[in-house]
Specification:
Structural class: mainly alpha
Distance between the termini: 52 Å
Radius of gyration: 17 Å
Strand content: under 5%
Length: 214
């Protein structure tokens, strides 16, 4: 028996949150005998895993965190084209599913709601909502990282660039434009807030440049 749209949406949001809560970097660290909460910055994200175990492990964690944002957005878009279109403006359900995944990463139920900063998962969600805007913000990340070798600087710059890229790329989208722009703007603020300790260190000249084992 088919579930009514509100029940389907509720299950989708719950599943997105639970998937987003999976702490892939933490689990990869444990697989190598390292609790990354106790090393480096203590963050459960890909950057700290890279510092602890090397770039390949960090890249794997980034890809998994990216995927857990992308997959809910794509699944929600597919369902929206089916039976969930009646729930609101086009793009609303994918944005809400993406938000649930990001909140899962930032406040994971499996780790007592103490999670990462949400950059990779946010980029994954945005790739499902507006891949070209995400590519532009990713290019900003790459340029700033190469120029500064400081992941926090690159991440903050990319977060700021994301809504600007959406404003340029998605202007002709129609009804869904406001949804994507609003989502990108809100996630930009969230990422920056999650980097507030990094910003304080940057202002004091104490933020470490990235270095990693191979």
């Amino acid at each position: 028996m088919d579930l009514p749209p509100p029940a389907t949406a509720a299950l989708l949001l719950l599943g997105s949150y639970l998937l987003g809560s999976v702490p892939f970097a933490f689990l990869l660290g444990l697989a190598r005998g390292v609790d990354i909460r106790k090393v480096g910055s203590g963050n459960i994200g890909a950057t700290n895993l890279s510092r602890a175990l090397g770039r390949r492990w960090g890249a794997a964690a980034f890809a998994l965190d990216f995927a857990k944002g992308l997959l809910p957005a794509l699944a929600a878009a597919s369902l929206e084209r089916g039976g969930l279109a009646s729930l609101g403006t086009a793009g609303l359900v994918p944005a809400l599913a993406g938000l649930a995944a990001i909140l899962g990463h930032v406040f994971p139920v499996y780790l007592r709601f103490r999670g990462g900063k949400g950059v990779a998962t946010t980029f994954g969600v945005m790739a499902g909502l507006s891949w070209l805007s995400t590519l532009a913000a990713g290019a900003v990340w790459g340029v700033l990282y190469l120029a500064t070798r400081t992941v926090s600087v690159a991440s903050i710059a990319a977060a700021l660039a994301l809504p600007a890229a959406v404003a340029v790329v998605e202007r002709s989208r129609g009804a869904g434009y406001a949804i994507v722009l609003g989502f990108a703007s809100a996630m930009s603020v969230l990422v920056i807030v999650r980097h507030r300790a990094n910003i304080a260190r940057l202002l004091r000249g104490e933020e470490l440049k990235f270095s990693s084992r191979r």
